[in-house]
Amino acid sequence: MDAIFIQILNGLDKGAAYALIALGLTLVFGTLGIVNFAHGALFMLGAFCAVTFQKLVTLSVKVRDEGITAFVAYKEQPYLETWFGDTGRIIIDYSVPLSIMLAIPFMLLVGYVMERGLIKHFYKRPHAEQILVTFGLAIVIQEIIKAYFGANPIPQPAPEILAGSANVGSWVGLGNNLVYPWWRLIYLCFSGAVIFAVFAFLQFTTYGMVVRAGMRDRETVGILGINIERRFTIVFAIAAVVAGVAGVMYTPILPPDYHLGMEFLVLSFVVVVVGGMGSLGGAVFAGFLLGVVQSFASMNEVKEIFPGIDQIILYLVAVVILLVLPRGLMGRAGVMDD
């Protein structure tokens, strides 16, 4: 029972990342009709916002090491510690969550520039052309990251207070021996909060109502005198922010490298297709569902029976679902039917 519960948590944790990326992908496709193969690169850019912020707050100066008295020795001490003492140490310790303050404006800017500079020229172009141009953009971004940060993964520490494990067994009545990393639980809760915020924005605000109307019938909304293009530009920027903050918070779980975006992109597109193209709820549900399925397929007991099943299980599930439900779990009629 303990192993099953842990695999469910692992699946929800991985599924949360899939759901956040797929949510942004679906939001862009539903509003703009764009199949954005550069969305995984936005997840990676968010992760490297955390890397950049951590490098900035740990900029150091050489100071005398008072702990060594036999000879004169020096050590590297971050400027923040020199200037602000304990407050500086706290900022460094919490550099990952604090880097969200850098990621949000940066990803808004990246999303705006991408949409205005490139994406808007492909609104009415065939999906194959959209895929080619956004995939090319993703490769360019990937190579820029590789040039500036190198090819190796860059570990990002979680805050010290959250670096251990929580006794989740005692929470659910399964004993005191069942533990799970605190940061993974934080990421799961954070993902739920972001997903709730996006749905609340679309459901309960006038702006979101107009966006949802534009997703259904863009021409009619335009006739009513609403500048739907400007609103869709902001939606693209919001989708970029969702991917970016998802990448920021995932860095203590998986050290980012320049391949990170592509690794999540392909699987997230499988999630979108399984959930149903254009269905936000379907993208979120499919993200968590496939995350759990992949987690159970990764168990050693399963891999002993079906070697390599963890590498292909998502594609097998996608094939079965699409054979039974060609539009996916919650796909709408008329979306991608052509």
Automatic annotation (TrEMBL):
Recorded topology in the membrane: Multi-pass membrane protein
Domain of life assignment: Bacteria
Subcellular location: Cell membrane
Keyword Disulfide bond: no
Regions that span the bilayer: 15-35, 42-61, 90-110, 131-149, 185-211, 232-253, 265-291, 312-330
Keywords: Amino-acid transport, Cell membrane, Membrane, Transmembrane, Transmembrane helix, Transport
Entry-linked Pfam families: BPD_transp_2 (PF02653)
Family from the record: Belongs to the binding-protein-dependent transport system permease family. LivHM subfamily.
Protein name: Branched-chain amino acid ABC transporter permease
